[in-house]
Amino acid sequence: MPVLDMLETELREVNATLQAAARAKGNETFTIENPRGAHAMAVGLDGPISVTVKGSTGYYCAGMNKLATVHVTGSAGPGVAENMMSGEVIIEGDASQYAGATGHGGLLNIKGNASSRCGISMKGIDIVVHGNIGHMSAFMAQKGNLVVLGNAGDALGDSLYEARLFVRGSVKSLGADCVEKEMRPEHLEILRGLLERAGADARPEEFKRYGSARTLYNFNIDHADAY
Q: Where in the chain does DSSP place strands (E)?
């Protein structure tokens, strides 16, 4: 198992090594030691490799991930897994603001808490947060699933489209056009699969589902104050 020690190797070289291995599609496994909160680590991985970061990272870790598995044993700064396409990103600690922003696919598994705007403008990604999420999470979320085992802050799902939001705890407030919806059998099945994939200790029946009321899709003068 190759080890990249950032006390000895510059970030640019670390990323170049990982990207080359991803392109080679050799299913290699890497360990990054002494990350010291470096920014933009393990970004743009376009192939089936596994990367374990032994510590915490700065902003934009695992951005644009495709097929790779990136496992951060500490916490992650802003924008982790931004614009993720596929694969899996696991954060053992907490994630800062806009985790999983604009993600198109794959699984972002946050074992701690996530800050504000988690899942903003998500476009198909699945996000599981084992703790709480901050305000304005899932803002303008278009597609995908956001699962929260803890509580959600203000303005959850503001102006969202067709993303599904599942929250086990309390929701401080719902954003514009976000409403609680019926939890049907197909939603329980989706949620059960996501909880199993994320290794979450929870039952689907403990959650409530939230989604779009679809009143802001087209301009209507009766809803002008909600835009």
A: 3-5, 29-33, 50-54, 69-72, 88-91, 107-110, 123-129, 143-148, 164-167, 178-181, 208-212
Q: What is the pLDDT of residue 187?
A: 97
Determine phi and psi for 14, rounding to 5 degrees: -60, -50
CATH assignment at residue 111: 2.160.20.60
Number of domains the chain contains:
1
User: Which comes out higher in pLDDT, residue 16 or 1?
Assistant: 16
Domain with 183, as residue range(s), is 3-226
Task: Over range 171-175, report the average pLDDT.
Answer: 97
Chain-centroid distance, C-alpha 96:
11
Question: What distances in angstroms separate CA 44 from CA 32, 51, 152, one per listed residue?
Answer: 16, 13, 30
What's the order of all strands across the beta sheet hosting 69-72? 3-5, 29-33, 50-54, 69-72, 88-91, 107-110, 123-129, 143-148, 164-167, 208-212, 178-181
> What residue type is 51 in one-letter code?
V
The pLDDT assigned to 26 comes to 85
**In contact, 124 and 190? CB cutoff 8 Å:** no
